[in-house]
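Problem 12. The chain below contains 295 residues. Write out its predicted structure in token notation.
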Amino acid sequence: MGELSSPAKVKEILSRYHFRTKKTLGQNFLIDGNIIEKIVQTAGVSDNDMVVEIGPGIGVLTSTLAQKAQRVLAVEIDKKLQPILEETLAPYDNVDVVFADAMETNFDRLVYNKSSGRFGAGADSYKLVANLPYYITTPLIMHMLTNKFNLNTLVIMVQKEVGMRMAASPGSKDYGALTVAVQYYTDAEIAFKVPKTVFYPRPEVDSVVVKLRTRRTPPVQVKDENLLFQVVRAAFGKRRKTLLNALAGSGIDLNKKQWTDLLKGLEIDPKRRGETLSMKEFASIANELYNTITA
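Solution.
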């Protein structure tokens, strides 16, 4: 059926099926075979791998994954793509397409059920490789990480701005709550940049491919993960505020004097701003807060 990743082929398929892309679903399809190959290489996909893809679109990336992986499980929210995917993925007997909302999907259960028990919770881990829809990137990543699905690697194409935040360092303009959350669960790196010219339709922004390797244990030990992320969100909620004012106004049940004493006891200057704190410092605040409110 020709080179699926070529612009002409993508446009021909969409036209033949009278399919109109939906901006609300972030439907921007890759039309560059070199980028697709780089994504698959970055993920290190081999014939032993189970790979999950979110948002296969018309199957451009899916078909390349199917040529490399043992099995591919693609989760697509738009059922209008079903006849297209039935055509484009017809040559591959190792692909399952499931029409579901990824935000409501238990991926371990889905993978386990689709692979006769070989993969999933309590068995082999799997990889996520996806061109994520921009409109839902952050909540989708957090869904994958906070549920602690049995993933070993996530290779995801995201909006450049979001990708830079994932891999940022303390004190940089990109460093924020997403940075701390992603780096708590994974080792994050920017694999390569992707120009907007390799998509159809063309988005308004450039993208990056980010590689996330899930951690067996977090880089810091905390007594309550939810409390850690509550502190992190509070610290970044008002970036122009000092750490003391941001925490004191967060709704956490400590008054300003208690926050001052807590921070000074940890030798953290209350006048600092959230973006200057390391993950270790956030963990120390969360642990001391836990001690205070459970005493």
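Discussion. The chain has a mean pLDDT of 92. Students who got a different answer should revisit the alignment rule from Section 12.3.
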